[in-house]
Write a structure and sequence with these properties.
single chain; globular
Length: 355
């Protein structure tokens, strides 16, 4: 028996209702204040249309991912998702469909059919900076140990080029993310800027339990946010810092084979993403790189301390894969200490106070 596809239709603000049988999605599906909407970010210049398309696809994919429950499928995991998204660079995206489907299947373990409709290029209202203020480097900054270590290393570099950090706000931890960023900003030897995007999907008309709890496509949303920012700033590389063990994320048992282990920063994922960017970009491309791919968590901690951070700064980070609202054991600590990312974090921090 052929599994039925869940069909999602990403609408632009002025588009009519989708065809019958398609569930509408759009920017309104994200908890996002107006000044943080993607088209209002404080970037050097308007992003190229292909980068706007890429971020729109990333937002559509993650929203569809959260609306399609895995436990409603025959094996309680593998879904069939059909997604329609408007793009400006229509012909290039049509040619890149097989590559995009392969990337999404690698990330989520699901079957994806992505269709493209024509769209107007975005009307940009970004603030425009002086050319001398453009970002010489762009990196994701989550508030975790790895991103903190990399940001500290780069923020303390003696250069006039600015460092742009791209954060996806964690709805339950804005204070923690802000304090971790402040520890970087206080030690800067160069201009440092930060933009904040939303990763929080609205539960419109439904209970939170009606949404999928796994977030296998979230890494794609993060990556394309960094790529769009780098493309607007004219920066050729966007960094996604993740220690080597968690980037490979080897399964700890046969029960965690395939997409049961997250592949957000896996080398093959970054390879497919870079191929996709090269296929759709019209002009200069942005390459995604993981600067910590060859380091252990312990080495990441050493690098952070060498950059001037304190053990207290490292301890204040958030690395947990199970935020408090999703925990069954009642712990209200920022890090549960029990999930795989927490165990790796604890191993890396062992003896930090003695360094």
């Amino acid at each position: 028996m052929t599994a039925a596809y869940r069909r999602f239709f990403w609408r632009e603000s002025d588009e009519a209702e989708p065809p019958t049988g398609w569930q509408p999605l759009g920017d309104g599906n994200y908890w996002e204040s107006e000044h943080r909407a993607p088209q209002r970010l404080a970037l050097l210049a308007p992003p190229p249309p292909w980068a706007d398309d890429l971020q729109r696809i990333g937002r559509a994919v993650f929203a569809a991912d959260k609306h399609a429950r895995r436990d409603a499928t025959f094996d309680r995991w593998t879904r069939h998702i059909r997604l329609s998204v408007p793009v400006a660079a229509h012909e290039r995206w049509q040619a890149a469909r097989p590559l995009l489907s392969s990337l999404l299947q690698t990330l989520t373990g699901d079957h994806w059919q992505v269709e493209f409709r024509g769209s107007r290029p975005a009307t940009d209202v970004s603030l425009t900076f002086d050319t001398a203020s453009r970002a010489g480097e762009v990196a994701l900054f989550s508030g975790g140990l790895d991103s903190l270590s990399w940001a500290a290393q780069r923020a303390t570099a003696h250069t006039s080029e600015s460092l742009l950090l791209v954060t996806f706000g964690e709805q339950n931890f804005p204070r923690l993310q802000g304090s971790v960023y402040a520890s970087i900003y206080r030690r800067r030897n160069r201009p440092v800027r930060r933009i904040i995007l939303s990763q929080n999907v609205r539960f419109q008309g439904k209970k939170q339990g009606d949404f999928e709890r796994t977030t296998r496509s979230r890494g794609f949303l993060y990556a394309v946010g960094a790529v769009r920012a780098a493309a607007a700033e004219g920066t050729p590389v966007a960094h996604i810092p993740e220690n080597g063990q968690l980037s490979i994320n080897p399964p700890l048992s046969p029960a965690r084979a395939a997409a049961c282990s997250t592949r957000s920063v896996h080398p093959w994922t970054l390879h497919l993403l870079n191929r996709l960017i090269a296929a759709v970009a019209d002009g200069p491309v942005v390459e995604l790189q993981n600067p910590l791919a060859r380091l252990t968590k312990r080495q990441v901690c050493h690098a952070a301390l060498d950059a001037g951070l304190t053990p207290a700064n490292l301890a204040a980070t958030l690395s947990c894969g199970v935020p408090p609202p999703q925990r069954t054991h009642g712990s209200r600590y920022d890090n549960c200490g029990l999930c795989y990312p927490c165990l790796v974090r604890r191993a890396g921090l062992l003896g930090v106070d003695d360094m």
